Amino acid sequence: MASGGVSPLTSVSPVPSLQESTAPSTSSPIAQTTNSSSTTPPATKICVFCGSSPGLSPAHMAMARSLAQYMASQKISLVYGGGTVGLMGEIARTLVSLSGPTSVHGIIPAPLVKYERGPDSEAVAEHSRENGSGLPEYNVYGKTTVVKDMHTRKSMMAQEVLAGGPGSGFIALSGGYGTLEELMEVVTWNQLGIHNRGVVVLNVEGYWDGLMAWIKNSVEAGFVGEGNKGIVVDAKTAEEAVKALRDYKLTVGRFKLEWGNE
């Protein structure tokens, strides 16, 4: 989490030397406010945390596609980590193919470009540092913003979700250390009252069973309050996950702290 007394959701800027992969008419990489001049409600935005690997079971990639397909059917936009490989690339490509490039916003730190992209990504990253080009194709992966570090990435993704309409929130597909860290940070932010959006794990083949067991054990051991055991919702299908965000109820044990960003 951010230190030095600054809210984790304080506005941040992308790396100045890098440009976005986006259509020329696209505005600021992150909306600071919802539609103040229009009666049209803001679009629902779901931030999906997931691995840059495909996993060994085909079920993980299949779920990424299923979630993208259901999001497209519900006209929901995707915010994600900006990678083009593994589950990250699969969900972005699928949603863009169904809903167009304006439905996806990837946010990636510059040092991770060569790890969360395809085989030519290191050359692409160097090219981007030199002239701001070479980012993922807009018509394949949607809008991409390259930022300076992990904290900026996570803060921008959270701000996108907070600017979204009803049903906006966070879903974790399968992933590794990075996915778990991102998930647990938004869980902690929910508990602390930093945001009021739902948090769901899409539990493919029992992937998140260990986490759900850990939460139960933490409650029983007295380290997580009984009133906060329901911050994370366990879902088995894309439809269940999206419905869980729409129906999400804040836990009774949530800290009512003033952070100045809700």
From TrEMBL:
Single GO MF descriptor: hydrolase activity, hydrolyzing N-glycosyl compounds
GO terms, biological process: cytokinin biosynthetic process
Biased composition (Low complexity): 1-18
Pfam families: Lysine_decarbox
Organism: Monilinia laxa
PANTHER family per the UniProt record, alphabetical: LOG FAMILY PROTEIN YJL055W
GO cellular component: cytosol
Protein name per UniProt: Cytokinin riboside 5'-monophosphate phosphoribohydrolase
InterPro entries: LOG, LOG_fam
Biased composition (Polar residues): 19-32
SUPFAM superfamilies per UniProt: MCP/YpsA-like
Chain positions covered by the region annotation Disordered: 1-40
